[in-house]
Amino acid sequence: MYYPDRGKNATKNFPILAPFGIAQKFEKEDLVVVMYFSNSEESGVILGGVSEYGSVPKAVIGAKDGALTVEAVSVTYTAGGKQIDLKELAEKVEAMGAE
Are 48 and 33 in contact (CB under 8 A)? Predict the structure, then answer.
């Protein structure tokens, strides 16, 4: 963690919460929510990212009524070492006349 308001001090790397076993990945300069443990500001866990006001997240993942929804420019599904680009697959299915 980097603290620009504290003379550019930084802490060691914190663990990142993986809700439902899904890893979260952050880029340098991303805003995150951190839960600090009561014993110090040097230990805690990153709960997730925060979008700045007016900033749209790069991708959205959600679940409702038993269905998983992913909104992104592209989605790649990997299983058994094989990658499938879901946008490309949908375009091929559409070109075949299927809905």
Answer: yes
Closest C-alpha among 62, 91, 49 to residue 74: 91
Q: What is the DSSP string of the chain?
A: -EEGGGTTEE-PPPPB--GGGPPP---TT--EEEEE-TT-TT-EEEEEE-PPTTPPPS-EEEEETTEEEEESS--EEEETTEEEEHHHHHHHHHHTT--
The greatest distance separating any two alpha carbons of the chain, rounded to the nearest whole angstrom, comes to 61
Q: What would the two tokens of residue 63 be?
A: 């679940």
pLDDT in tens, 25-69: 888 778 888 888 877 667 788 888 887 766 666 777 777 888 888
Q: Which residues pair with 32 in a beta bridge?
A: 49
